[in-house]
């Protein structure tokens, strides 16, 4: 069976940056399973898996526009330090959950700390990066009615 919309695809992957640094991998874990055509993985990778089958191995390069987007400078903002009440020590690199403008929960990363403000970045950590995937497709099957109804793999 070939990868197509409404199929469940299970694959192993290694993700590296432009300079060859490993960013993520499914090594030693179960393969990643997703429902094809339902936005469960980044668009550029999903498009490259279309038409492939179990047993296929491929290398895929995904540009930022088809991954996590470009870095949006508007998502880097200074926040009054008082917004971090109850946090004794704030350091660059720390992650916090914040409420977005539409009420959604989003992760922010501390980029700078001063006496009055904490600069946070709400961009995805991989925004602006070209991503390189080494993929091994393990299984392709028809999705169940329940999986299609729910829009994800069970």
TrEMBL record:
Residues 6-95 form the PPIase FKBP-type domain. Its main location: cytoplasm. Keywords: Chaperone, Cytoplasm, Isomerase, Rotamase. It is an enzyme of class 5 (isomerase). It holds the Pfam family FKBP_C. GO terms for biological process: protein refolding. It is found in: Cytoplasm. SUPFAM superfamilies: FKBP-like. Its EC number is 5.2.1.8. It catalyses: [protein]-peptidylproline (omega=180) = [protein]-peptidylproline (omega=0). This is Peptidyl-prolyl cis-trans isomerase. It comes from Spongiibacter nanhainus.
